[in-house]
Amino acid sequence: MKQLLALASILSVSSPLMAATSAKATQYEVAARYPVSGAGRWDLLAVDSAHHHLFVSRGDRVQVVDTTTGKEAGTIAGTDGVHGIAIGPDGHGYTTNGKSNSVTEFDLVTLQRVRDLPVNGKSPDAVLYDAVSHQLFVFNAKSNNASVLDTASGKEVATIAFDGNPELAVADGRGHIFLNTESNAHLVEIDAAAAKIVHDWKMDGCEEPSGIAMDTAHRRVFSTCQNKVLAVTNADNGRAVARVAIGEGPDGAAFDPATQSVLVPLGKTGTLDVVRVESGDRFRKVQSLPTQTSARTIILDDSDHRAYTVAAKFGPATAGEKRPPMIDGSFSVLVLAPKGK
Question: Which site from 31, 139, 144, 170 is most exposed, i.e. has the minimal number of CB atoms within 10 Å?
Answer without folding.
Answer: 31
